[in-house]
Design goal:
Layout (H helix, E strand, L loop, with lengths): L4 E5 L7 H13 L3 E6 L14 H7 L3 H12 L1 H4 L2 E2 L12 E4 L8 H4 L2 H10 L10 E5 L2 H6 L20 H15 L13 H6 L18 E3 L5 E4 L5 H17 L4
Parallel strand pairs: 1-2, 1-4, 2-3, 4-5, 5-7
Antiparallel strand pairs: 6-7
Helix pairs in contact: 1-3, 1-10
InterPro entries: Class_I_gatase-like, ThiJ-like
Protein name: Class I glutamine amidotransferase-like protein
Pfam family, one: ThiJ_like
């Protein structure tokens, strides 16, 4: 049986450790071959505020996610990522592209990358069902897709059902921490557009944006494409499990 191959593109710094480490751990446990990629092949690091100190205790990753992150950080795949800026870099070999989120401003390296956008503009349309190619994204990771334009000038997810970080969550985190963290929770700076609005305006119909304000896990699977999305760290484990099932199902059905 084909071993599923996963690529996790990352910025050099700033991704949410829960949204990265829990899926990585689940993919490895499922027998997937996992690769990482950063712009120049430098080993990445996740957001320290989510891992240590008072910010971790009040707002950051739970202990199991912190432990999973430290194990992931020692993994050879994480220590020696591919370079997405290399001429030989290609998404073609991968059955799954997984896009983690994070709100530190460092994640803009991935969100705004014209190189990643160009690769996804070619890859994402090939996830249209039936296909063995899949994409999953969580939180700000959805913006990598919403900001990727196809040949028609529209976002590659313009006709998809999706979720992402809800405005109410983003605003609550920003206003609740602004006195001591400033604009930390606004990736593009104070006064910038919320993730939900940024994603929704790229869709054909705002009703395609699926919103849940519950704290329990919530994942959206599109009907036309092999595309799943989540909102924030609480969704990471379920998103990984649903993604694994999707990838395994497409491969078992003999899709290419």
């Amino acid at each position: 049986m084909t071993t599923p191959k996963v690529l996790i593109p990352m910025s050099d710094y700033g991704h949410d450790p829960t949204e990265t480490a829990l899926p990585f751990t689940a993919f490895k446990a499922a027998g997937f071959s996992v690769h990482f990629a950063t712009e120049t092949g430098q080993a990445p690091a996740c957001d320290e505020k989510m891992l240590v100190g008072i910010t971790r205790k009040l707002l950051g990753a739970a202990k199991p996610a912190v432990e999973a992150y430290h194990l992931m950080a020692q993994a050879p795949e994480f220590q020696s990522p591919l370079a997405w800026s290399a001429p030989s870099f290609d998404l073609e070999p991968y059955h799954l592209i997984f896009l983690p989120g994070g709100h530190d401003k460092g994640v803009r390296q991935l969100l705004d990358s014209p190189i990643i956008h160009a690769h996804l503009a070619s890859y994402f349309p090939r996830t249209r069902k039936p296909s063995a190619r899949c994409v999953a994204a969580v939180c700000h990771g959805v913006m990598v897709l919403s900001e990727t334009e196809g040949h028609d000038g529209r976002s590659v997810i313009h006709e998809c059902e999706t979720t992402a970080l809800p405005t109410r969550f983003e605003q609550a985190a920003f206003w609740g921490t602004r006195v001591w963290l400033g604009g930390y929770y606004k990736t593009y700076g104070v006064g910038s557009e919320n993730v939900e609005e940024s994603v929704t305006k790229k869709l054909d119909d705002p009703r395609q944006f699926q919103r849940s304000l519950g704290m329990g896990p919530f994942v959206v699977e599109d009907k036309k494409y092999n595309y799943l999305s989540g909102r924030f760290p609480n969704d990471a484990q379920l998103l990984a499990e649903r993604t694994i099932a999707l990838v395994q199902g497409t491969l078992a059905s003999g899709m290419i």
